[in-house]
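I have been asked to look over a protein record a colleague put together. The record follows directly below this note.
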Amino acid sequence: MTALRRQDVMLGTGAHVRCLGKGRKMRCTPLRPDVIAVLKGWLSYQPGESGDPVFSSSRGGHLTADALQRLVSRNAEIGSLSCPSLKKNP
């Protein structure tokens, strides 16, 4: 996800995301309608070129795995206040 480029996201008919999978084979993952709507909004909010990252850092580069993990953890913690199933289980 951190290496995903705008050119890898197809939002028209047959919407999908392309990425390299196991064995360096190109994989296409279909997108659900709710995900398509969110990605359309995100890509219009964050304009860029086709080679730019979909999810960029504050400096415009791609997110690192550590930065993504911090974002997910922080937002899961915030979300757990209204949705208890997001809380960490020991």
Remarks:
- Strands lie at 9-10, 16-20, 26-30.
- The chain has one domain: 6-86.
- The chain has a mean pLDDT of 87.
